[in-house]
Amino acid sequence: MIINKCLFPAAGYGTRFLPATKAVPKEMLPILTKPLLQYGVEEALSAGISNMAIVTGRGKRSIEDHFDKAFELEYQLIENSKKDYIKKINDITDAATFTYVRQKEMLGLGHAILSGQPLIGNEPFAVNLADDLCINENGENILFEMITIFNKYHCSVIAIEEVPDDQTHKYGIISGKLLNNSDNTFQVDSLIEKPAKNQSPSNLAIIGRYILTPDIFEILKTTKPGKSGEIQITDALIKQAKNGKVLAYKHQSKRFDCGSIEGFVNATNYLALKKGIIK
Ligand code: UTP
């Protein structure tokens, strides 16, 4: 089994970024000069995946345009002796294939993943929530590491990180025990979506990277709406976890929650400093 495809759920409303997200998809907001979604696509490419499956929705057409050729723009750049930019706009378009499906109603992340089934088919796949920007500093790549774990254990793998006790209500949280110290894996017994501080089984929070086995689609079809009335991927994973089929990987990347304004600003400052744009 090889991971050939990466699914990008990108249909959410991005309410926290209104009014910016009224006409611009949250996933197209730039950190420096690149949209969030492009960082996700580049991460998948460097993990060895070249087939990008994107779940979009109404008002998200600019995503398709971004990953397509732009002949008029190329012509203008050549005419105006700005050829250097051509590579910047074409590299990503040439390196990957992009397929799209629309989530017709925004019924939650689990529903968005289920909407991607026609693009994925019956094979294990990666999921990347591009608003969780993972900067892989020392040559590591979070998706690549998760694929390596998948190849060893052949079951779903979810990325986790430790969060402060007063932050658990913002995340899906796992309960489980350390499986292998050398590859930072935990055997997941159960999961709970956004628990209150005193009801959280741990402070190990799920972030936006998953490797999922395709049986998740059948489970999602019968998963009832949970917290906030949305179909939660966490609830579907509980069923796999009960059969011992979910591992968690404590990742080593630097992650920014770019779905929040604070995380978005921090990511921008971090990369601007790193690239010497600001001091
Ligand atoms: P979020 O809950 O962070 O995104 O979902 P949101 O709903 O767009 O943001 P707010 O809370 O309104 O500000 C995490 C990811 O899941 C996708 C989002 O696009 C985001 O990438 N998502 C969420 C969907 O594709 N469909 C949904 O129905 C819900």
TrEMBL record:
InterPro entries: GalU_uridylyltTrfase_bac/arc, NTP_transferase_dom, Nucleotide-diphossugar_trans. Keywords: Nucleotidyltransferase, Transferase. It is an enzyme of class 2 (transferase). Residues 10-271 form the Nucleotidyl transferase domain. Its EC number is 2.7.7.9. It catalyses: alpha-D-glucose 1-phosphate + UTP + H(+) = UDP-alpha-D-glucose + diphosphate. GO terms for biological process: UDP-alpha-D-glucose metabolic process. It comes from the Bacteria. Coiled coil: none annotated. Gene3D superfamilies: Spore Coat Polysaccharide Biosynthesis Protein SpsA, Chain A (3.90.550.10). Signal peptide: none annotated. GO terms for molecular function: UTP:glucose-1-phosphate uridylyltransferase activity. May play a role in stationary phase survival. Belongs to the UDPGP type 2 family. NCBIfam families: galU. This is UTP--glucose-1-phosphate uridylyltransferase.
